[in-house]
Design a protein that fits this description.
Chain A is of the alpha/beta class. Chain A contains eleven helices and ten strands. In chain A, the strands form two sheets. In chain A, strands 3, 4, 5, 6, 7, 8, 9 and 10 form an eight-stranded mixed beta sheet that branches. The N terminus of chain A is likely disordered. The N and C termini of chain B lie far apart (about 50 Å). Classes of the chains: A alpha/beta (about 300), B alpha/beta (about 325). The complex binds zinc ion. The site of zinc ion (ZN) has 9 residues of chain A, from loops. Chain B: It is an enzyme of class 2 (transferase).
Amino acid sequence: MGSDRVDPTAQKNMASQGMSWITKVRNSLGSLGKRDTPDNLWVKCPGCQEMVFTQAWQDNLSVCPRCAYHGRIGAQARFSQVLDPGFAILTAPSVPENPLNFRDSKKYSDRLKAARAANPYPDALTAAEGAIDGQPVVLAVQDFAFMGGSMGMAVGEAFVRAVERAIERRCGFVMFTAAGGARMQEGILSLMQMPKTTVALRRLSRAGLPYLVVLTDPTTGGVTASYAMLGDVHIAEPGALIGFAGQRVIRDTIREKLPEGFQRAEYLREHGMVDLVVDRHELKATLARLLDYLTRKDVA
Amino acid sequence: MISFLDFEKPIAELEARIAELRTTAESGQLDLAAEIDKLEKKSAALLKGTYGKLSPWQKTQVARHPQRPHFLDYVRLMFTDFIPLAGDRRFGEDEAILGGPARLNGRKVMLIGHEKGNDTASRLKHNFGMGKPEGYRKAIRLMEMAGKFGLPVVTLVDTAGAFPGVEAEERGQSEAIARATEACLSLPVPMVAAIVGEGGSGGAVAIASAERVLMLEHAVYSVISPEGASSILWRTPEKAADAAEAMKVTAQDLLALRVIDRIVPEPLGGAHRDAGAAAAALSSAIGEELDGLTGLSADELTERREERFLRIGRL
Ligand SMILES: [Zn+2]
């Protein structure tokens, strides 16, 4: 992580966590010597460009042990990092596939096939029900690795189903966002997921249930301009890129240099759009504390 | 004087020839009436033929035509007693999104829409119809006022998209759009949205999440501009026409997809050739839609709106 991406508070948080994770990393470094998988033995940190042992990287929740760069992670890793053991993955809904029969340089149906082959879940949003430190919750994760996390009908419908499940269980809903924006290959139908997901959130709100958003790197476009910004509380991971318009588009429009740290988690907090920038190691505990505060005993 | 689009070149040439003949005829030496009449018929037929089969990319150009009627033209042509209200009470006033109470054939409504401007000065004043957070927050304020005082909401949507700029991001463009969309969905009064030119992405949805959505015949509505889709998906700016085709951006396509509810016909050759006729058609269509929503309770209205969007993407 370039030092420009390190949030000073995050660094402080890391320091104040004491030695536990450092010890853990050292231990895993020690045990790594015996492994014989040279191909993926090392991870090159996109932040500081240093080589880090894969095992150390993963043991540290895919956060760089050297510079605290928060790497992108998928739904499986999120579920196991945040949910108590024993959670259940919700069935992915079936939606119309390639309704516009879209093709650019490739057919959309082929792009979908390739994404499914490379990813564990059938589309970019996967939800699970379980608990966080004993508090019941439905949690959904958008995975940037699946077509840039883009929001199409499958994402919108899975989001709505997850919210409906939270209403049924009378529990909070936690959403981890990550997306380049809408799924252009579904044209206007992807744009319509903005009001559609908002409808679900209005129902959750009417039920008096909390909606916590965790904005992860990157969250941009129509996703930011809908469910990512409608939370009761907005949490962001350190250094995450969060914005409506893309930086290149903005640069082309204003024709000047963008400000330091523009559209990063810390910048959004400074401008009043994000409540908390939370290190991944403290995320589970933070969510649990917030859920506790925001769960009405008279509603449950 | 109409400015012609590239694909209208044959029509432009005929019109120029007609103008020439008229000048000659006026000088009185020749009787050219028959010839002029013949060419005018030919020109009208050509216009009809051309506009009867516009491609999605041609429609995009018509929707963006500099002389296409904009919000303030419709205010002048189809509303009376409009009181433009300013400001979001938080940061400032944004002239890209205008609104206030107005009367549509005598009926009181809350009118909100994007204004693009029609010359250099007014385009700058209205920021080319690209709203900033304060514009969307003003729209929220006006929608809440409409709900409080029982005024149906009518929106005229015409934007290339919300403004992509540093201050817009700083002040929460995303949050403003998300909350405006939510405000539409929460309205206890009827809401009718009409896409009159360009419906550009989130900046359009923010004031178009209504239970009845209309589109002018040659308007376009899309998740990203054809140029933007071309450069991202085809990795070249040259495939905009293909992108417009592939994304299904026309009123006719969107009606088939049930994303919009009604197409409002435009005068022959597009709204810019006869703004009065375009406004008259729009006025009666919106009036009919509002009639259809009269008498519904707040719960019935929000439920219709919710079901309308929930069904998109369900098998
Ligand atoms: Zn690093």
